[in-house]
Design goal:
single chain, alpha/beta, TIM Barrel, eight-stranded parallel β-sheet, two-stranded antiparallel ribbon, 14 helices, globular
Length: about 350
Amino acid sequence: MKEGLGGVQGASLPAIREIRTLLRVRCHDKPMKSLIVNADDFGLTEGVNRAIIDGHRNGIITSTTLMANGRAFDSAVAAGLAAPALGIGVHLNLTQGRPVSPASRVPSIVTPRGTFYPGPGILARRILTRQIKPRDVETELRSQIEKIAAAGIRITHLDSHKHVHLLPPIFSVVRKLAREYGIDCVRCPVEPAVSALGPLRSGRRGWPRRAKQYLLGRALSTLAACQARKVKDAGLCRPERFYGLSQTGFLDAAMLEQILRALPEGTSEIMCHPGYVDEALLDTRTRLRFQRETELGALTSPGIRRLVDELGIKLISYGKLSLPRQSTAGKSNEPVQEITRRG
């Protein structure tokens, strides 16, 4: 017997009409705009951790990415486990602090003092001159993923500090590890060109810094566009659009409102860097200090929260983005869950 709409072909006309009505209602009710608001640098400092949690509880932050080698890693894990609605990914790091792996196991990615080489520029140059060994990159990134999973975190996605995972040799490793550990999503920050012009068009001071960030954002977006197809071919997920590259260091309530009002249909991600300024942050090698408090104010603004509701934007985390995998592509986070049980 052949099956038709909703079951058996011989179903009554009223039943078929009811099914069609339900389908229309479901399609009509489905939010047309979904938004992930991801706070980077979870675990960097205690002040950053508190700000991310405050932005989640009192604002629009839905997701964060955790630094396995952050000085405030333990408190970030405790706070994250106490916030079950907050999606948590891995903020893969190869440019700041010390590796999770013993330095002797990853010699090509650390200085003689056992720290990462500072900054993505140095990392890129060492890759181009073949001073970086891919096996060392894989060993360290694997250690970071396993440390976070062993702490009890259900990993929703992967991204990286300073976006170094976009460098082709590193991206190949990240894609491999995502599939191996059953992590469905990888950030691919392809930023719309019109949105990237926002900081330049704001007419505020600091135009040279804004222009520099714009050019950096366009370069990173071009790299990301080159990797986007590889994400899809690997059976991995990513938001359709990304915002925040050119706004890094300049994101405030006005700029956030501009992004939200222009948000297209589909799934988008906004990257942000909230934080409270404390001694640990002032002692950290980062250009984002007091700007982090400005971003937190925007993310928790009652006006911004009302605007999200008025525009019909559904706030989601990367955990809601995962697509069903084919049987050959992975086991839907089972490898990571197994690490959690062992931990």
